[in-house]
Amino acid sequence: MAHIDCAVLAVPTANKAAYLEMTKKMAAIFKANGALSVVDVWSDTAPEGEVTSFRKAVQAKPDESIVVSWIIWPDKATAEAGMGAAMQDTSAMPESGPPFDGSRMIFAGFEMLHQA
Fold it and tell me: What CA–CA distance (Å, rounded) separates 91 from 26?
């Protein structure tokens, strides 16, 4: 059964090009390690909620945009092995570090329940 790794993060809007460059390189690494698909989406509407929201969840600052990213793996075992291997490969990381604050990133793995 397919397994999905999902992340939500805040990226300084000024770093959009740097994020895109890094994530394209990371996608190639994930796919080389068994991922079926890698998707990153950049918010064009992510309103601040009164109780909760994407912005609140990652403590986004006014000059940051929300990114949601997911990786589709064929199964959990491949996801665990592939993610482990990909995290050891630092070739996609800019010398200055990631173009976002990784301490505010939310990350989780999911079992595929339904796909239409």
Answer: 9
Query: Distance between the two ends of the chain, CA-based, in angstroms?
Result: 15
Q: How many helices (H) and strands (E) does the chain have?
A: 3, 4
Determine contact, residues 43/65, Cβ cutoff 8 Å.
Answer: yes
Going along the chain from its start, the domains and CATH numbers come out as: 3-111 (3.30.70.100)
User: Residue 101: CB partners within 8 Å, gap ≥ 6?
Assistant: 10
Contact 73, 24 (CB under 8 A): no
Is 65 within 8 Å of 16 (Cβ atoms)? yes
pLDDT by position in tens, the chain (length 116): 899 999 999 999 999 999 999 999 999 999 999 999 999 999 999 888 889 999 999 999 999 999 999 999 999 999 999 999 999 998 888 888 889 999 999 999 999 999 88
Its pTM stands at 0.91
